[in-house]
Amino acid sequence: MTLQQLRYIVAVAETGTITEAADKLFISQPSLTNAIRELEKEMKILIFHRTKKGIRLSKEGEDFLGYARQVLEQAAILEDKYKGRDGGKKQFCVSTQHYSFAVNAFVDLIKEYGQDEYDFSLRETQTYEIIEDVAHMKSEIGILFLNDFNEAVLSKILKSHDLKFHLLFVATPHVFISRNHPFADRSILTNEQLAPYPYLSFEQGEHNSFYFSEEIFSVSERKKQIRVRDRATLFNLLIGLNGYTVCSGVIDEQLNGKDIIAVPLAEESHMRIGYITHQKGSISRLGTTYLEALKHYVDAEHRAVRKSNYRESV
């Protein structure tokens, strides 16, 4: 097995075809095909399924791809350190629920490592996809929350995928509402007070179970519910319809705008927000830098929330 063969596997997986990968790698299609088959024979696994519709990763291939990417990242670090090179194009991916601090940390990562060439991905996606991304090592880090309701189910799934949860902070549940909402001047809100207003949440696709929800009390019956896919749509509906959603209370005006505020929510279990990693993998230099930035923003924003709540209570 060679580093070049691993680069071939990554290129084919990214492009989805032998033809495009060969063009990208500046080699002939037969040479690329033979190199992949030799690697499959050596590793005694089938990395790609070949069908009439094209080529796709096998289950074993998905696992192998994750390890291949880690090996190439470590090789790049060695070249950077001992050859005086930049180690080639930097690659990094994180999958997350919809948190502003995850975006801010990603911006800091790019500022530090965004050289002439890089290929970074930030996936604000559904909870189950976050777990799958890290399980298949498509993403090095996944960010989500646990609470009393979902912890037993999610912890079981994480364990079955060889994933580990690392706590970042414990958050008191808040609601995001418009600054012009009738309850905008309240220091705390209850579910009963919010019941007449539209309840907004992020839809979870085919895994639209209460346990995968980003909102901690979505098991409760709501007269008015709206599910969306992206942050911008959710905030526009919050403002336009006087809707609300449940959150950690961490808010960023640059990302969320000045028209959205966070108000504490009464009588709900705390959110344990953290990140997941693969137990068989190791955190890369890029991953370490991202986590450092993440903890910086979490600490700063969480202190601001506690300070704001304290002022409102006195």
Protein architecture, described:
- With 314 residues, the chain is of the alpha/beta class.
- Among the domains are: 1-88, Winged helix-like DNA-binding domain superfamily/Winged helix DNA-binding domain (Arc Repressor Mutant, subunit A); 169-271, Periplasmic binding protein-like II (D-Maltodextrin-Binding Protein, domain 2).
- It has eleven helices and twelve strands.
- It has helices spanning 3-15, 18-25, 29-43, 59-82, 100-113, 127-135, 151-160, 191-194, 231-241, 253-256, 285-313, and strands at residues 48-51, 54-57, 90-96, 118-124, 141-146, 163-171, 174-178, 199-202, 225-228, 245-247, 260-264, 271-278.
- Helix 1 (3-15) packs across helix 2, helix 1 crosses helix 4 and helix 5 (100-113) runs antiparallel to helix 11 (285-313).
- 35% of the residues are buried.
| Helix run count | 11
- Strand tally is 12
CATH architecture of the domain at 169-271: 3-Layer(aba) Sandwich
Order of helices and strands: HHHEEHEHEHEHEEHEEHEHEEH
Q: Please name the fourth-level CATH homologous superfamily of the domain at 169-271.
A: Periplasmic binding protein-like II
Q: Could you say what the CATH topology of the domain at 169-271 is called?
A: D-Maltodextrin-Binding Protein, domain 2
Strand content: 15-25%
Low-confidence stretches: 310-314
Shape: elongated
Strand count, sense and barrel status of the largest sheet are: 5 strands, mixed
**Strands of the largest sheet, in order across it?**
4-3-5-12-6
Binned, the helix content reads: 40-55%
**Structural class by sheet pairing and helices:** alpha/beta
Domain HTH lysR-type: 1-58
Protein name: Transcriptional regulator, LysR family
Family: Belongs to the LysR transcriptional regulatory family.
Organism: Hungatella hathewayi DSM 13479
